[in-house]
Amino acid sequence: MKSSDAKRLKGLKQENTRLKRAVAELTLDKQILREAVDFLGKA
């Protein structure tokens, strides 16, 4: 593996980690909003 390939792979892994974190946060936001809508619908 070339040095440039290793650097690219490292960058891609970092980007993947960042995107996974963003998806997790948005999933949590969606769950919170869904629970709020359910709560308000019952009120």
List keywords for this structure.
43 residues; mainly alpha; 1 helix; 0% strand
Counting DSSP H or I runs of 4 or more residues, the number of helices is: 1
User: Which stretches are poorly predicted, pLDDT < 50 over at least 5 residues?
Assistant: none
Q: What is the residue-mean pLDDT, rounded to a whole number?
A: 96
N- and C-termini, Cα separation: 61 Å
Largest sheet descriptor: none
Number of strands: 0
Morphology call: rod-shaped
Q: How much strand? A: under 5%
The radius of gyration is 19 Å
**Into which percent range does the helicity of residues fall?**
over 70%
The class by helix and strand makeup works out as: mainly alpha
> Could you give the order of the helices and strands?
H
Characterise this structure.
This protein is mainly alpha-helical. The chain has a domain at 19-43. Helix content is 93%, strand content 0%. The protein is built from 1 helix and no strands.
Secondary-structure topology with pairs:
Elements: H1 3-42
In short:
93% of the residues lie in helices and 0% in strands. The protein is mainly alpha-helical and 43 residues long.
